[in-house]
């Protein structure tokens, strides 16, 4: 975890931007193993330069700008992405607003005005498939070719494979959509997590003996509906307290078949969590969401789900994403 992780935005005064940094540039959705290879290269280069390393990323995700009416399942929203980046050892992040002006900026102008003039970088690391600038003309090869003239060092990282399968954000989204939590965790390098504020629900879980902390996820969340073993964090940094539990994500077909909701039952916990923000990490997939003929049958199944969740969590006692503190 990196204390004092800074965030530089378009409105940040030039005088407040450290010069000579090395940057890792990418969209970093999920901050998966491929992204981490780019970050590691930037950190190593920064160490050799005696300079800090920053991430350069874009918000909103360019896909959202170019396809505003197409649902986008993001692995990490901006806040989650920054917390993950803060846990890598980077000194900070440059968050560039991706709007019409930036989308229309040529690759050469982006390099000259953003990277060299404004940020004053001494080096940059990117992934083999990262493109930037109008028409996606900017490429790793362009950066390599321009490096001698600009006086910067460039590192291009190849793709990262797991069992001969390239790691990518899209592959992780597919794994989560299929309930393949182990695959997603391997590609991310840590469990996938979501954050949200605990809201009031229908209190059915309490009546069944399984009081839940209910969290509304993004409407475009593509996670498979079902039951999961989860590890939950409350608070940040060294003050974070963690709990094991079991969670349901879905529409509650036995009751109302309503809007998707994440309902988390924390083991061995008593207290009021309403209004509290929780981090929920998915450790394992237990089963698909089912409709039961009776409440009694549901309770029997929930007891079995809890036992299976406890076993999964016991097998991975330390599993949780490494999150830093931003700001």
- Which strands sit side by side, in order, in the main sheet? 1-4-3-2-5-6
Which overall shape is indicated by the principal axes computed on the Cα atoms? elongated
The low-pLDDT segments are none
Helix/strand order, N-terminal first: EEHEHHEHHEHEEEHHEHEEEEEH
* Averaged pLDDT: 94
Tell me the radius of gyration: 22 Å
Question: So how many helices?
Answer: 10
User: Class by helix and strand content?
Assistant: alpha/beta
Termini separation:
12 Å
Q: What's the helical proportion of residues?
A: 25-40%
> How many strands, which pairing sense, and closed or not: the largest β-sheet?
6 strands, parallel
* Total number of beta strands: 14
Strand content: 15-25%
Can you tell me about this structure?
The protein has 327 residues and is of the alpha/beta class. The protein contains 10 helices and 14 strands. The protein has helices at 33-49, 62-66, 78-86, 100-103, 107-118, 140-150, 169-177, 181-188, 204-208, 295-315, and strands at residues 6-9, 22-25, 53-59, 92-97, 123-127, 153-157, 161-162, 165-166, 193-197, 213-215, 226-234, 241-250, 261-266, 277-288. It is elongated.
Topology:
Layout: E1 6-9, E2 22-25, H1 33-49, E3 53-59, H2 62-66, H3 78-86, E4 92-97, H4 100-103, H5 107-118, E5 123-127, H6 140-150, E6 153-157, E7 161-162, E8 165-166, H7 169-177, H8 181-188, E9 193-197, H9 204-208, E10 213-215, E11 226-234, E12 241-250, E13 261-266, E14 277-288, H10 295-315
Parallel strand pairs: 1-4, 2-3, 2-5, 3-4, 5-6
Antiparallel strand pairs: 7-8, 9-14, 10-13, 11-12, 11-14, 12-13
Helix pairs in contact: 7-8
């Amino acid at each position: 975890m990196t204390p004092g992780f800074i965030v530089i935005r378009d409105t940040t005064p030039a005088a407040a931007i450290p010069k000579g940094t090395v940057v890792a540039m990418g969209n970093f959705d999920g901050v998966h193993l491929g992204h981490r290879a780019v970050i590691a290269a930037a950190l190593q280069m920064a160490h050799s330069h005696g300079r800090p390393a920053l991430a350069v990323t874009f918000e909103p995700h360019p896909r959202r700008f170019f396809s505003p009416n197409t649902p986008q399942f993001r692995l990490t929203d901006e806040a989650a992405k920054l917390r993950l980046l803060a846990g890598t050892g980077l000194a900070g992040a440059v968050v560039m607003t991706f709007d019409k002006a930036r989308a229309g900026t040529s690759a050469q102008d982006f390099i000259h005005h953003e990277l060299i003039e404004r940020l004053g970088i001494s080096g940059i690391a990117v992934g083999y498939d990262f493109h930037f600038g109008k028409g996606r003309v900017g490429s790793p090869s362009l950066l390599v070719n321009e490096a001698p003239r600009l006086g910067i060092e460039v590192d291009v990282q190849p793709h990262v494979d797991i069992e001969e399968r390239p790691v990518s954000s899209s592959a992780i989204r597919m794994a989560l959509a299929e309930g393949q939590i182990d695959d997603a965790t391997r590609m991310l390098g840590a469990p996938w997590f979501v954050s949200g504020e605990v809201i009031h629900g229908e209190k059915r879980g309490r009546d069944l003996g399984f009081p839940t902390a209910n969290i509304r996820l993004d409407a475009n969340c593509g996670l498979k509906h079902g039951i999961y073993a989860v590890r939950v964090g409350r608070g940040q940094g060294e003050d974070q307290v963690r709990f094991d539990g079991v969670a349901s994500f879905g529409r509650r077909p036995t009751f109302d078949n309503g809007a998707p909701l994440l309902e988390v039952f924390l083991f061995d916990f008593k207290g009021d969590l309403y209004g509290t923000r929780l981090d929920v990490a998915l450790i394992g997939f237990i089963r698909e969401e089912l409709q039961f003929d009776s409440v009694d049958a549901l309770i029997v199944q929930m007891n079995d789900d809890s036992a299976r969740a406890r076993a999964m969590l016991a097998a991975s006692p330390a599993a949780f994403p490494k999150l830093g503190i931003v700001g």
